[in-house]
Amino acid sequence: MKKIRTAMLGTGFMGKVHTEAVRRLGNVEVVALAASPGRDVGPLKDSYNIDYVTNDWEKLLQDPDIDAVHICTPNSQHAPMTSAALKAGKHVLCEKPLAMSSAEAKQMLDLAESKGLVHATNHNLRYYPVVQHARQMIAAGDLGEILVVQGTYSQDWLLYDTDFNWRILADANGPSRVVGDIGSHWMDMIQHLTGLKITSLCGDIQTFHKTRKRPKGSVETFSGKTLAPSDYEEIRIDTEDFASVLVQLGPRCRGAYTVSQVSSGNKNSFRFEIYGTKCGVSWNQESPDHLWIGHRNAPNQIIVKDPSLLAAKAAAFADLPGGHSEGYDDSHKQLFRRFYQRIADRSAPIDYPTFADGVRGMHLIEKVLESSKRRAWVDC
Ligand SMILES: NC(=O)c1ccc[n+]([C@@H]2O[C@H](COP(=O)([O-])OP(=O)(O)OC[C@H]3O[C@@H](n4cnc5c(N)ncnc54)[C@H](O)[C@@H]3O)[C@@H](O)[C@H]2O)c1
What is the model's pTM? Predict the structure, then answer.
């Protein structure tokens, strides 16, 4: 069978994760990479073991032998790269948050649909096997009516005013940092699991560091080193470090979440708790193979990932036997597998988040900012 030929736009954290995950699929070949203008492509050719590495992503998109692309660049690049890729006839898997605004995201969705191309937004965190088990429990009615959703996505990597990344700047990131970067995952997850939509919310955002010190050299060069004061320039910050959000999902379900990039000791502490009229479930990304089930009148349980013990539809997201961990890398692989199945066979189910989920995500991000600005509840 002919392999699907794909390319990565962006060679940072996600470019590497996507390349590795795609290479584990078997039916897809990563044939090209686009690095940022000016970046020395020689070391990338060696480290990725790919001959075709270019600084010119627009030229790459004109290659008729490339079927699909992954957009793994800063958020400001998502819409222009996606739009050019779709116009060149490529299927597109784009990172989250999908765009800089919901209007931009909607244009991406409309273009993909009008071209009849396959499109996905990379909400990979849905695809841990025990998370899918929680979804199947909820669908089967095991939790009863869902009453309460709670959780957080907490990190600490931007705690100090000397911590720096493109996400800090609205020009590259969009107007919301923590809600866009990690709150988008939390809101997507809770809606994916419960099947409910966030219908109203009340958000409060805070930028603790009104200014930050930007290294005068490249961040990679300086990372991990102690700099002298003269190595920095001070800049004003226009994206938030923290948010707390109350949510309503329909007439009865209520909840709240926090998102933070300044909570020391938390690396990627993504937690959800979902409580129904019969029992509750809770999961933390930092312990990905375990699902807690809470009972009122019986001992609580911990389900350990083991495909032979998971609901059948959840077991389809586990490739290894129990006792062998499946984590962050594997969640990407599961999503990508389904995206490429759909490219190979248009009758395959759309069992992955599309640009429509990305549009919804952008809409909710904007609603959190609007609510915080107005200091009021807003309907979504
Ligand atoms: N799904 C997830 O779990 C997850 C995790 C992290 C990041 N992300 C998303 O992935 C995207 C990338 O984030 P990252 O953490 O990999 O950032 P990063 O800074 O590590 O990598 C971004 C890369 O894009 C490259 N780039 C910038 N402009 C370019 C251009 N014009 N042409 C080619 N390359 C260009 C940069 O050189 C860099 O290599 C963001 O949208 C982010 O929100 C998703």
Answer: 0.97
